[in-house]
Amino acid sequence: MKLNEISDNPGARKARTRVGRGIGSGLGKTSGRGQKGQKSRSGVAIKGFEGGQMPLHMRLPKRGFNQPNRLTYAVVNIGTLQAAVDAGRIAAGSSVDAAALRDAGILTHARDGVRLLGRGALTAKLDLVVAGASAAARAAVEKAGGTVTETHAKLVPPAGA
Q1: Helix (H) or strand (E) holding 115
Q2: In 3D, which of 110, 161, 118 has the Cα closest to residue 141?
Q3: What is the mean pLDDT of the chain?
Q4: What is the model's pTM?
Q5: 139 in helix, strand or coil?
Q6: CATH code for position 123
Q7: Nearest to 147 by CA among 159, 137, 158, 160
Q8: Does any domain span residue 66?
Q9: For residue 115, what are the contacts with CB-CB under 8 A and spacing of at least 6?
Q10: pLDDT average, residue stretch 121-126
Q11: Long-range Cβ contacts of 91-95 (<8 Å, 24+ apart)
Q12: Three-state SS for 133?
């Protein structure tokens, strides 16, 4: 086989549809866009526009409130911690905080703190330092012989807020 003999599998590369190339192609003249109007031209951005009528998303009543400075937590389940211990990324019996979770590859960003949740099972003894923990997660860690220390980062608003 030579370099000039190499070719792709038949049908692997589909040629793009060439429009506006005569009446016999079936996509000549208006190129399948129909007749006149805004949508037959380039640069159309209609999306929620309803022809001047008040759009639906503006007719519906507003509801709820989004707190602008609320804290967001990185969520870690106890099953994920056990998997990391089994893989050798976290040492059993060690103290685990956000930095240790980042080093173990469980978290990429600690955000405003780590929240521990109870999905999965934990058998390794770990001393956890987290911003918050659910009751089920706390019970599972204490049953395995570990401790949970909450830093209560949720009581402190983020900087600049």
Answers
A1: strand 114-117
A2: 118
A3: 89
A4: 0.57
A5: helix
A6: 3.100.10.10
A7: 137
A8: no
A9: 73, 74, 75, 76, 130, 131, 132, 133, 134
A10: 92
A11: 92/124, 92/125, 92/126, 93/124, 93/125, 93/126, 93/127, 94/126, 94/127, 95/126, 95/127, 95/128, 95/129
A12: strand
State the residue range of the domain holding 80.
74-155
Q: Is 29 left (phi over 0), alpha (psi -120 to 50) or beta?
A: left
Mean local confidence (pLDDT), 10-34: 93
Q: What is residue 7's three-state secondary structure?
A: coil
Rounded to an integer, what is the distance from CA 61 to the centroid of its chain? 29
DSSP 37-101: SGGGSSS---TT-BTTBPPHHHHSPP-----TT---BEEEEHHHHHHHHHHTSS-TT-EE-HHHH
Could you give the 3-state DSSP secondary structure of residue 16? coil
Q: How many domains is the chain partitioned into structurally?
A: 1
Q: What percent of the chain has pLDDT over 70?
A: 94
Section 100-119 average pLDDT: 91
Q: Is the model's pLDDT at 158 over the cut of 60?
A: no
93 neighbors 126 (Cβ within 8 angstroms): yes
The answer as to whether 33 is a domain residue is no
Token readout for 64 is: 């709820």
In a domain, residue 1? The reply is no
How many CB atoms are located within 10 Å of the residue 55 CB? 13
Amino acid at 125: K
